[in-house]
Specification:
Layout: E1 9-14, H1 15-28, E2 34-38, H2 40-44, H3 48-58, E3 62-65, H4 68-76, E4 83-85, H5 94-99, E5 103-106, H6 109-122, E6 126-132, H7 144-154, E7 160-167, H8 178-193, E8 200-202, H9 206-210, E9 219-222, E10 250-255, E11 258-262, E12 267-268, E13 274-275, E14 280-285, E15 301-304, E16 307-312, E17 320-324, E18 333-337, H10 347-353, H11 358-364, E19 371-374
Parallel strand pairs: 1-19, 2-3, 2-9, 3-4, 4-5, 5-6, 6-7, 7-8
Antiparallel strand pairs: 1-10, 10-18, 11-14, 12-13, 14-17, 15-16, 15-18, 16-17
The structure holds pyridoxal-5'-phosphate.
């Protein structure tokens, strides 16, 4: 979608907040520990390139992405440092990754063997991180025998440089740490099977980091907390307390493009699910579900000027309506998502409204919304 730069609706990203979040976490790390900034999915909707530069400036020493293309984009924009693709990339692209000095996750012996054939032809060496499925049930080695065979395959193999070995937690944001402990044990068991020595061993995500799970490995893969958001991920649940200050970076603002008075019996939006019971003021905001502002946002209160006003009628593809307490001028500021975690329209409140987590809200904000950077 083409960004709508001639429409008053934008995502504001405070890069200082991102830098502060990165610095605050780095301060808590030991000297030999690194923070790699997770900038997948366009930096959780915040914009990969500006966020990556901010993270770098604040002391991040590597990047994690979800797809090879996201890594290629960072390289195209000249970002230095290691880049790790966290997902599985088809082996046919191993030469491209090697050429661009992008590290790939390996989760099976079969992948290694296929990639080895291709890299033998091209004569390249690919950096890899061995992904361990210690209980996430997603990708990675989970069987001892296969992992041991991979280890043998990698010994003195000129086509692979084993840069890392890592796992990913499924419940680091839970108050009950028994499953986390199980995953750590499982990972350590697999690590002991290795004779090739990866440069970096890593486990922690944001949750393990900010909830102080005492995971002292070489790299923290810092994602959602870098954006200033608490990694607790239960919709409508209470957040666990972060041990580090988190400053949200993102806000979402627009303006009223139309204001009118409607009379008793007059309906608003598709299906006329809202019908005025007296003379009422209605404002129109030029944002809809095509921007990632879902239909389930109906009923949520956004800030119009100084008032919190409910969304009335269905959210359309490109517009929605709010019930105003009084007549206000066209051009009045509308804040859909506040960067203040205490504001009633903070991103967690938005996520609660649609029964999801703020990760999903931020990622779904579409390309049609220009990203505007402060600091
Ligand atoms: C997305 C992801 C992360 C970052 O997770 P956060 O909860 O945002 O910190 C870390 N590691 C892996 C493997 C991931 O997929």
């Amino acid at each position: 979608m083409v960004p709508a730069i001639h429409r008053p609706a934008q995502i504001n990203v405070d890069l200082d907040a991102i830098k502060t979040n990165v610095k605050n976490e780095i301060k808590r790390l030991d000297n030999n520990q690194q923070l790699w900034a997770v900038v997948k999915a366009n930096a959780y909707g915040h914009g990969a390139i500006p966020v990556a530069h901010a993270a770098l400036e604040a002391g991040a020493t590597g990047f994690c992405v979800a797809t090879l293309d996201e890594g290629l984009q960072l390289r195209e924009y000249g970002l230095p440092k290691p880049i790790l693709v966290l997902g599985i990339v088809p082996t046919q692209w191993a030469p491209l990754a090697a050429q661009k000095n992008i590290s790939l996750t390996v989760g099976s012996l079969e992948w290694l063997k296929k990639a080895d054939k291709i890299l033998t032809e091209t004569g390249q060496t690919l950096k890899i991180h061995l992904g361990i499925d210690s209980g996430m049930g997603r990708i990675g080695f989970s069987e001892d025998d296969e992992f041991k065979a991979a280890n043998v395959f990698l010994q003195d193999n000129p086509h692979f440089e084993v840069e890392g070995m890592f796992t990913h937690f499924s419940k680091a944001d839970s108050a009950d740490t028994s499953y986390l402990d199980y995953q750590v044990d499982r990972f350590n068991h697999m690590k002991d099977l290795l004779t090739v020595k990866p440069k970096y061993i890593h486990m922690a995500n944001s949750a393990a980091a900010v909830f102080d799970r005492k995971i002292k490995t070489d790299i923290v893969r810092y994602g959602v907390a870098m954006y200033g958001l608490n990694p607790s991920s239960v919709p409508n649940g209470k957040d666990l307390e972060s041990h580090v200050d988190l400053k949200p970076a993102l806000s979402f603002t627009s303006e009223l493009t139309f204001v009118k008075k409607i009379h008793s019996g007059y309906g608003v939006s598709y299906g006329a699910t809202f019908v005025a019971d007296k003379d009422q003021w209605i404002g129109t905001v030029p944002v809809g579900y095509a921007d990632g502002w879902q239909r389930k946002m109906q009923g949520f209160k956004v800030k119009v000027g100084e008032d919190y006003c409910p969304i009335v009628g269905r959210v359309c593809m490109d517009q929605f309506m709010v019930l105003l307490p009084k007549e206000v001028p066209v051009g009045t500021k509308v804040e859909l998502i506040s960067a203040d975690p205490k504001a009633p329209n903070n991103i967690k409140a938005v996520a609660d409204q649609v029964d999801t987590i703020h990760y999903e809200i931020a990622c779904l904000l579409s390309d049609r919304l220009p990203r505007v950077y402060q600091n």
